[in-house]
Amino acid sequence: MREGNGAIQISERGLYYIYAQVYYLTTESSNSFAIRLREEGKSSPEELALCSVKATGNGETSEVSCFTSVVRFLNATDRLFVWQRERNRRVILRDGCTFFGVVHLNGKRD
THD domain location, by residue (predicted)? Predict the structure, then answer.
């Protein structure tokens, strides 16, 4: 796998466990993100998983986190990325708060 421009590019076909968590510090009630897949040759990305969390929404600052994961067969050159669905959200990027990862579970499918 390679990392670049905020995306993870798959280098070997196989079954993968894909996961992400986003930690928000927000006054907004709705906070959500998606894990997206961009396959080579396709014009638009596919949403693999969606995560949405509701904060208090009463104007007070809340700390909320949202975690999601999915298992998916991926091809070499597929690119994965996290897409924030709403604008102007404060995401905490400290270690252990917000993360994105991929685990290769097995090799090539027949």
Answer: 1-105
Strands 30-38 and 14-26, bridge-based pairing: unpaired
Overall size of the chain counted in residues: 110
Q: Looking at 25-34, 46-55, 63-72, which range is the least confident one? A: 25-34
62-105 pLDDT, tens digit each:
899 999 999 999 999 999 999 999 988 889 999 999 999 999 99
For CA atoms 24, 102, 78, 2, give the dihedral sign. Answer: positive
Do residues 14 and 75 touch, judged by C-beta distance below 8 A? no
Tell me the two tokens of residue 81: 């990325």
Number of Cβ within 10 Å of residue 51's Cβ equals 19
CB 59 within 8 Å of CB 73: no
Domains of the chain: 2-106 (2.60.120.40)
- Averaged pLDDT for residues 52-65: 85
